[in-house]
Amino acid sequence: MVASRAGTGLVAGGRVAGETRAVDSRPAGRAAAARIWAGLDKPGQEAFRQAWEALRTGNIAVGACASTAGGETICSARNRVNDRDGPPGEIFGSALAHAEANVLARLPFGRREDLVLTTTLQPCLQCAAAIRLGPVATVRFAGADRYWDGCHEFGRLSVRETRRVQPARIGPRSDELGAFATVISRLAHLPPGYEQALRALVDGPAVDLVRELQDSGEVERLAAMDVAGGIGYLWPRLRELTTVLPG
Ligand SMILES: [Zn+2]
Questions:
Q1: Gap between the Cα atoms of 220 and 22, Å rounded
Q2: 239 alpha carbon – ligand 1 mean position (Å)
Q3: 151 CA distance to ligand 1 centroid (A)?
Q4: Which of 34, 63, 73, 151 fits 125 for a cystine, CB–CB 3.0-4.6 Å?
Q5: Residue 26: predicted pLDDT
Q6: Which among 226, 191, 187 is positioned nearest to 210, based on CA atoms?
């Protein structure tokens, strides 16, 4: 049986003369993380950079980026719920200061409705509504957020919404990057009621990893890395999460 030791990336990887030899899995994790990072397009990388900046600044680690259908970045933003200031036009210091809302707040009213909004986390109720009202044709997201599952289905609300074309949705990812996006979004804000709700939604393993990172002081270590380094650092545990979380 392969034993794993959370937090180190070390696994027991063979036996020599009756002893267990520890094999450092971290280089392999870093290489796999580098590959998945290189596979992201520019708006995807920018959204994760923004999420990481949110993590480093004590905000909820979610980032977002608006781009054209051709992949040209228009603007990006991050969660600022705990910030005391922010760029002109963005929301900060309130429960409304979500990454997607801040991207949309920077887009002028009345522009063509053909943009792609890339976000690191499945949009919440507020952001799904803002996306519905904004110039967004497609929303792409990496991490699942089961807390808000179903809150984008505006076709249920009225006959008019049923007839209207809703933004296309691509996500969540079922790979390590998707797990990463979900986990980092819980690091700064996980009050008991929220945790209880997530556990009831079969998100317990992700919550367990969040608590492990908080209790071990690893959040501070992560914040000293860049985002690709953070993915590599967490890789073995993200991989484990992908095997136990519901698809
Ligand atoms: Zn939101």
A1: 26
A2: 26
A3: 11
A4: 151
A5: 80
A6: 187
Supply the DSSP string of 182-245, one letter for each residue.
HHHHHSS---HHHHHHHHHTT-HHHHHHHHHHHHTTHHHHHHTS-HHHHHHHHHHHHHHHHHHS
Centre of ligand 1 from the C-alpha of residue 127, in Å: 4
Cα–ligand 1 centroid distance for 240 (angstroms): 27
In single-letter form, the type of residue at position 44 comes to G
Expressed in angstroms and rounded, the spacing between residue 29 Cα and the centre of ligand 1 is 30
30 C-alpha to ligand 1 centroid (Å): 30
CA of 180 relative to ligand 1 center, distance in Å? 17
Length of the chain: 247
Q: Is the pLDDT of residue 35 over 60?
A: yes
Greater pLDDT, 9 or 187: 187
Predicted TM-score (pTM) of this structure: 0.89
Residue type, 37: W
* Average per-residue pLDDT for the chain: 89
Between 140 and 28, name the one with better pLDDT: 140
Beta strand extents in 53-166 (DSSP E only): 63-67, 73-78, 115-121, 136-143
Q: Are strands 115-121 and 136-143 parallel, antiparallel or unpaired?
A: parallel
The string of pLDDT tens digits covering residues 121-133 is 999 999 999 999 9
For ligand 1, the distance from its centroid to the CA atom of residue 129, given in whole angstroms, is 9
Judge contact between 55 and 61, C-beta under 8 A: yes
What is d(CA 247, CA 234) in angstroms, rounded to the nearest whole number? Answer: 20
- Ligand 1 centre to CA of 132 (Å) is 13
Å from CA of 118 to ligand 1 middle: 13
